[in-house]
Amino acid sequence: MIAILDYGIGNLKSIYNMFKKVGIESVITSDIEEIKKADKYLLPGVGSFDHGINGLKKAAFFETLEKEVLQNKKPILGICLGMQLLTNSSEEGKEKGLGWIDAQTVKFDLEDKNLSIPHMGWNKTNPSNIKDIYHNLEENRFYFVHSYHVVCNDEKNILATATYGKKFTCSIYKDNIYGVQFHPEKSHKFGMQLFKNFGEM
């Protein structure tokens, strides 16, 4: 069972409905006991970095989540802002991130001034290592809405890249911790397959 973490941020119902469509059991929750029982976690997020990280760290379940992910090695998938919260910090705010993956979140700096920020719409992704969440995808195409992107300090943590003016990291991982910059819940059959892959890992 996947616990969709409810800390007041994100498209929780859309994510729940996508898991339901692909036959993966999930629950939207902030309950500590449910979080202990869960096999995996989905960390959603929309909005600003500081608001997100403060909300997550102040959640009653945060210490439980940290133990389950870092000590018990249960898989977690962060999406959009949820992925950025996995990093050390963000240029968008002053607060420290979770630091679960050694990376920084930085603002797009594009030479092509005809490209607008935020980067919004469908884009092809290029997995560096076809495994786990990218299995059985007929096309790696997903829906993005973001002004910031992640820069990993260790290339081994890069799971996929995309191009918008320049190549950027759009998916990261380390051991049991995964992040995607795009919105699987808005990516139709491609997002459904990615959620299915995560649920069946």
Automatic annotation (TrEMBL):
Its EC number is 4.3.2.10, 3.5.1.2. Its main location: cytoplasm. GO terms for molecular function: glutaminase activity; imidazoleglycerol-phosphate synthase activity; lyase activity. The active site is at residues 80, 183, 185. One of its GO terms (biological process) is L-histidine biosynthetic process. The keyword RNA-binding does not apply. It holds the Pfam family GATase. It comes from the Bacteria. Pathway: Amino-acid biosynthesis; L-histidine biosynthesis; L-histidine from 5-phospho-alpha-D-ribose 1-diphosphate: step 5/9. Residues 4-198 form the Glutamine amidotransferase domain. It catalyses: L-glutamine + H2O = L-glutamate + NH4(+); 5-[(5-phospho-1-deoxy-D-ribulos-1-ylimino)methylamino]-1-(5-phospho-beta-D-ribosyl)imidazole-4-carboxamide + L-glutamine = D-erythro-1-(imidazol-4-yl)glycerol 3-phosphate + 5-amino-1-(5-phospho-beta-D-ribosyl)imidazole-4-carboxamide + L-glutamate + H(+). GO terms for cellular component: cytoplasm. Gene3D superfamilies: 3.40.50.880. SUPFAM superfamilies: Class I glutamine amidotransferase-like (SSF52317). It is found in: Cytoplasm. Keywords: Amino-acid biosynthesis, Cytoplasm, Glutamine amidotransferase, Histidine biosynthesis, Hydrolase, Lyase. Heterodimer of HisH and HisF. IGPS catalyzes the conversion of PRFAR and glutamine to IGP, AICAR and glutamate. The HisH subunit catalyzes the hydrolysis of glutamine to glutamate and ammonia as part of the synthesis of IGP and AICAR. The resulting ammonia molecule is channeled to the active site of HisF. This is Imidazole glycerol phosphate synthase subunit HisH. The lineage of its organism: Bacteria, Pseudomonadati, Campylobacterota, Epsilonproteobacteria, Campylobacterales.
